[in-house]
Amino acid sequence: MRKSVPLLGAFLLAGAAAALECAEAARSRTKEATDQTQLDDLVVANRILSDQGVVDGFGHVSARHEADATRFLLARSMAPGLVTADDIMEFDLDGSALDPRGRTLYVERFIHSEIYKAHPEIKAIVHSHSPSIIPFGTTSVPLRPIYHMSSFLGAGVPIFEIREAGSLATDMLIRDPELGAALARRLGKSAVVLMRGHGDVVVGESIKQVVFRAIYTEINAKLQAEALRLGEGDFDQQCGPRPPLGSVEAAGARTTLSNSRRRNVSTTAVKWPAAPRSSPSSQF
Questions:
Q1: In this model, does residue 96 exceed pLDDT 50?
Q2: Chain-wide mean pLDDT for the chain?
Q3: How far apart are CA 212 and CA 234, in angstroms?
Q4: In CATH, what number is assigned to the domain containing residue 64?
Q5: Is residue 3 in some structural domain?
Q6: I need a labelling partner for 76 at 20 to 30 A (CA). Which of 31, 111, 125, 142 fits?
Q7: CA-wise closest residue to 172 among 241, 235, 91, 107
């Protein structure tokens, strides 16, 4: 009986080790599945934004890494409509690629790195040259939420003036961390910041939310410009015969939309399809 005690202990230890190994393997599979889901969502985000005309051959969308908040995912420099999972790269918060392998990087990746660094609550970012918003970055007419679907604009839409952050001799691009940090400060607590003569940056708490916001920012700009052409409404004040959404209305609509998106965010703006698995030969 005495000799059986060590044997029993060894048996129990072996069983515990096997159970631990199985648990670790299960956690690893779960992590891999989570990582793949995030990669797939990022690929689909690129494709949807291209399909909806928010981005064209330029622009980019990123996501903070779900497993490591000090990293983010962003495609290599290429047209968003061609992005596949193989093109997604991992970056640190200095904008450095962790495994570049000679791939070309977006010049303006510092938009993403500096916003993630300054705003830990932000989980996804879209930068685009969304055409209808450009005039609102170069005129005195503020971009306001004209209907409930764009109520996230109710917190205000600041304009980033690169001449105040850099110099008069920039090419309008966010080419370094200093300009990226200045843009992040200008964003503040808003969901959108306009960039004079350039485009905009849209942020969100998830990939699907930021895609929703980027699409409806563009739609709102089109509708607001049309309303201004019709000559009705008062977009300089929160009053008048037919004003845009007031702060209370915008807050209420944001809450409603947020609750709706939790139930079915993937179909609020457009259908969220499966991500393509292979890279087209026309990539550059």
A1: yes
A2: 83
A3: 26
A4: 3.40.225.10
A5: no
A6: 31
A7: 107
Query: Averaged over 168-196, what is the pLDDT?
Result: 96
Give the Cα-Cα-Cα angle 104, 108, 105 (nearest 5 degrees).
10
pLDDT for 47: 97
Domain assignment of residue 261, given as a range: 11-267
Distances (CA, A) of 190 to 151, 186, 204, 252, 268: 12, 9, 10, 16, 21
Nearest to 49 by CA among 230, 245, 269: 269
Furthest C-alpha separation in the chain: 97
Tell me, yes or no, whether 279 lies in a domain: no
Which among 108, 161, 205, 232 is annotated as catalytic?
108
One-letter amino acid identity for 218? E
The rounded distance, in Å, linking the Cα atoms of 79 and 283 is 8
Question: The pTM is what?
Answer: 0.78
Is position 221 within any domain? yes
Write the pLDDT tens digit of every residue in 206-260. Answer: 999 999 999 999 999 999 999 999 875 555 554 444 556 666 665 666 676 666 6
What's residue 99's pLDDT?
95
